[in-house]
Amino acid sequence: MPCTVVVGAQWGDEGKGKIVDALSAEADAVARYQGGPNAGHSVIYQGQTIVLHLIPSGILQPGRRCLIGNGVVVDLAKLREEADHLESLGIDVRGRLGVSPAAHLILPYHLAADRAAEIGPGAIGTTGRGIGFAYRDKASRVGLRLGDLFDPEDFRERAARNLRRLQCEFPESEDLQKMTVDGMLDGLRELAAWVEPLQADVSAELHDLLARGRRVLLEGAQGTMLDLDHGTYPFVTSSPASAAGAPLGVGLGPRVVDRVIGVAKAYATRVGNGPFPTEMPEQEAAHLREAGEEYGATTGRPRRCGWLDLPALRYAARINGLDQLVITKLDVLDGFEEIRVAEEYELSGRGVASFPSSARALEACRPRWKTFPGWRAPTSEVRKWEDLPEAARAYLEWIEKKVSVRITTVSVGAAREAEIRRDTNAR
Ligand code: GDP
Ligand code: IMO
Ligand code: MG
Q1: Beta carbons of 229 and 114 less than 8 angstroms apart
Q2: 192 — phi, psi (to 5°)?
Q3: Which ligand is nearest to the CA of 270?
Q4: 307-360, pLDDT tens digit by residue?
Q5: What's the whole-model pTM score?
Q6: How many Å lie between the centroid of ligand 1 and the Cα of residue 173?
Q7: Which atom of ligand 1 is nearest to the CA of 297?
Q8: Mutate to test the pocket of ligand 2, among 38, 129, 225 (most ligand atoms within 8 A of CB)
Q9: DSSP output for 29-72
Q10: From atom 17 of ligand 1, which residue's Cα is the shortest distance away?
Q11: Coil, helix or strand for 328?
């Protein structure tokens, strides 16, 4: 697998963290390429749940180099907090973490603007981590990058300009109105000193590793349906969450990627607003939410729950060029009498041939359901494909046939070992 991308094939929270942690055992370096601390990747480590927001999930495997690429937006306070927590557990972070100086910073005014913009109509239901405003500054060419911290005069001038602009835009935001550039810089000084030695030429490092035949994992955050270009716009995040964003976000050419693994749950969830064609009525959703512990890893919000959405999954296979599928949380469906899947969408009684590109069009689509009998048997101890209940295998085989992507791994629990690798040589 010299260069593998792991990408969310749904609306985020598919279990990417668990899968990246497992794959990291066989990788030399793991890099994040987009998003920021809006991500919450949970990994069970020595019996304890660790939630990673900015640091790649490879950090829990000893010795792996972990990198944060140019495409990520970094909140230094959050990064420091995360690193300190891991170090308090005896995990070496500072010796292994590298951050691109070209990564844009999330600054306190981005957080305040995110909060202010989410009040009233048009709210996206963001994680409140300042993501959209940090990427907006990047695209407007007024953003401040990590490397800019070390030119304090220029940093101060540009930060002051950015703060003034947001104060004019959100006169009602008390947080923004009382914010001062000096206060902000005071808060950043120590963090800048902390991060300075962690700067790394992520592109050059990864390029060199690959040139020496080493193995690199690129870890996606969010999911395809939240991708800025290809997701359910405007109910998306502000970065290229799909696989094409991976080489861009770490400074490599697209041809280095030789494998794209899509991670999808055996059902579907979504956090925040926006269309969700297979969403269940709340009573049913509540049952699945409890069974799957579907609460946001970053915000604690209850996740919206629904059945597997095949048109969306097929779309994700195309957008990402998926080579392999990993299906997670199969065990969560163990107790269900029947399992439903949206096989297609319909609109005014007619089938919908191509995946709608607008959120409003998707909102109008209705699923055409297919129902499978549940297996009503525990799968969490199963480690071999052949040992899965027949009904579970039938469900999975039907999915891979419809999506035309082979399911290579099935996850049946949150712990590292709770997985079924179908083709032992696949990795
Ligand atoms: P990510 O954002 O894609 O990394 O996913 P999250 O960590 O936000 O959410 C996935 C949740 O499901 C986490 O709490 C994981 O520990 C848990 N999880 C992952 N795989 C499985 C699985 O196969 N079965 C069960 N029951 N839980 C899982
Ligand atoms: P991981 O990496 C699920 C959602 C938010 C909101 C939208 C925009 O853990 O899968 P943002 O804060 O990015 O501006 O919010 O995107 N969202 C996620 N949903 N998992 C995530 O990350 C998410 N990151 C952002 O809920 O709907
Ligand atoms: Mg998550």
Answers
A1: no
A2: -65, -45
A3: 2
A4: 999 999 999 999 999 999 999 999 999 999 999 999 999 998 999 989 998 899
A5: 0.97
A6: 36
A7: 8
A8: 38
A9: EEEE-SB-TT--EEEEETTEEEEESSS-GGGGSTT-EEEE-TTB
A10: 414
A11: strand
As for ligand 1, residues whose beta carbon falls within 6 Å of it are: 8, 12-18, 40-42, 297, 328-329, 331-332, 411-414
Helix ranges (DSSP H) in 89-201: 108-117, 131-140, 152-169, 174-177, 181-195
Distance, CA of 97 to CA of 266 (rounded, Å): 33
Tokens of residue 405, six digits: 């992507």
Under 8 Å between Cβ of 52 and 44 = no
* Mean pLDDT on 244-255: 98
What is the 42 CA–ligand 3 centroid distance (Å)? 7
Strands 419-421 and 406-411: antiparallel
250 phi and psi angles, rounded to 5 deg: -125, 0
Sign of torsion, CA 273 269 238 86?
positive
- Can you read off the two tokens belonging to residue 308? 């597997």
Give the pLDDT of residue 424.
62
Residue 366, beta-bridge partner list: 346
Q: Which ligand is nearest to the CA of 419?
A: 1
Dihedral, CA of residue 235, residue 238, residue 239 and residue 242, to nearest 10: 0
Is 346 in a helix, a strand, or coil? strand
All residues at 6 or more sequence positions from 244 whose CB lies less than 8 Å from its CB, including other chains: 254, 319, 320
CA of 127 to the centre of ligand 2 (A): 6
Closest residue by Cα to residue 179 from 230, 112, 260: 112
3-state secondary structure of 265: strand
Length of the chain: 427
- For 73, the enclosing helix (H) or strand (E) is strand 73-74
Q: Is it the case that residue 425 has pLDDT exceeding 60?
A: no
Identify the pLDDT of residue 120.
85
By annotation, the residues acting in catalysis are: 13, 41
The minimum-distance atom of ligand 1 relative to the CA of 294 is 11
For residue 214, the one-letter residue type is: R
State what percent of residues in the chain have pLDDT above 70: 99
To 10 degrees, what angle do helices 108-117 and 131-140 make?
110
CA terminus-to-terminus distance, the chain: 7
Q: Which of 5, 18, 267, 288 has most ligand 1 atoms within 8 Å of its beta carbon, as the pocket-test mutant? A: 18
Residue 297 confidence (pLDDT): 83
Taking all residues of the chain, what is their mean pLDDT, rounded to a whole number?
97
132 ligand 2 Cβ < 6 A: yes
**Tokens 């990994």 belong to which residue?**
43
